[in-house]
Amino acid sequence: MNTNQPVEEHKGSILVVDDAAENLRLLCSLLEQQGYQVRPALNGNLALKTAELHPPDLILLDINMPDMNGYEVCCRLKSNPNLSDIPVVFISALNETIDKVKAFGVGAVDYVTKPFQFEEVEARVRTHVEIRKLRQRQQEHNEHLEELVNERTQELEMAKARLAILDKAKSDFLRLIAHELRTPLNGLLGISELLFDECKNNQTASDYHEVFMQARQRMMTLLDDAMLLTQIEVENAHFSTETTPLALVLKCALHNTESLANFQGVSLGAIPEGLGTVMGETTLMIKALQSLLETAIRFSTKGNCVDISPTWESNDLLLRLDSDGASVPDDVLSRFFDVLGVGESITLGGDLGLAPALAERIISLFGGKVTVENRKPNGLRLTVRLKPASPQAV
């Protein structure tokens, strides 16, 4: 028997164990003719040593052998972690009574009888070798998948760590803007006020003073909005969810935007009736609707009105803010609520700052949603979807 040929040229490797030399020779010869690599062993001790040195794909093991019978050999094989997964097929004489329960109990997967019906032997051998190879491929596949999962997990952990660093850097930067710049800015503004007081009788200086005060207010608002946006978006600050009377929120928001509306020559619609209560922290909800009203005002032409109209949809309250004036370019609509999504040039009343982004984050914080669309022929519609404190039928 030639046992030196490479394994890959054979269907599989088989260890045949039988103390009867003639049976051993016959079985090995027949299996080799079928393309298997075969190693013989005349007793149990030799079988265990051979299996350790050259782990086969299958073991054909005679039961009735001196010194160490097949049951004991099989038990030792199954107790060895390196050999325990090798399928064992017992060999017994036709006139022997095989204890099938014991055979399967010690780990055998099948048995054949002597004298051999070789077609049956080959069929059983082929089946169990193929099953083992399938299991090996499945194991290799599982190990490969596990490696990929581990690699992906490590990549995600690294990405998460990098994101945490970037979030902290963003948070620190916005804190720097909101806190560290406020102190020197207040000092600068105070000195500027003193200088304007010295020139209060100068008409040109008075005009500059008005422009300066508007810029000052916009700068302070931007700092406050940046800090609040940091708390919501970066720091994941906790805000209490409470029930808020929407009419009260809208009344405060209208009051806070009245001066801007007057400056723009835009009127504000009346507070609708039957608004009820919605989910959200009152102070934040006022800030959100104020920001959206300011946005609508800045898209309105002089002499027009920002209309406020409610409707119900799927148990949610939809509050629409309609303005007549400028529209949003199509390429800007998709990023309208981004922090840097809207430029000054598309509005009629100056830069929007962080107002749209801040309003959208606040409304989302309490389970709502804000959308924007252009109106025909010109104008803007902001739709605020709010969660009512108690559902109402459509």
Report on this structure.
- The chain has 394 residues and is an alpha/beta fold.
- The chain has 3 domains: 7-139, Response regulator (Rossmann fold, 3-Layer(aba) Sandwich); 153-214; 239-386, Heat Shock Protein 90, CATH 3.30.565.
- 51% of the residues lie in helices and 16% in strands.
- The strands form 3 sheets. It has a 5-stranded parallel sheet with strand order 2-1-3-4-5, sandwiched between helices. It has a 5-stranded mixed sheet with strand order 7-9-10-12-11. A two-stranded antiparallel ribbon has the order 6-8.
- Helix 2 runs parallel beside helix 3 (70-79) and helix 9 runs antiparallel to helix 11 (355-365).
- The radius of gyration is 42 Å and the shape is rod-shaped.
- 27% of the residues are buried.
Bin the helical content: 40-55%
Assembly category: single chain
The gross shape turns out to be rod-shaped
- The termini sit apart by 87 Å
Main pleated-sheet profile:
5 strands, parallel
Give the count of helical stretches: 11
Strand order of the largest sheet: 2-1-3-4-5
The CATH superfamily label of the largest domain reads Histidine kinase-like ATPase, C-terminal domain
User: What is the string of SSEs from the N terminus onward?
Assistant: EHEHEHEHEHHHEHEEHEEHHEE
CATH topology of the largest domain: Heat Shock Protein 90
Query: What is the second-level CATH architecture of the largest domain?
Result: 2-Layer Sandwich
Mean pLDDT: 84
**Number of domain units:** 3
Q: CATH first level of the largest domain: which class?
A: Alpha Beta
Strand content: 15-25%
Radius of gyration: 42 Å
Judged by helices, strands and strand pairing, the structural class is: alpha/beta
Any low-confidence stretches, pLDDT <50, length ≥5?
A: none
State the total count of DSSP E strands: 12
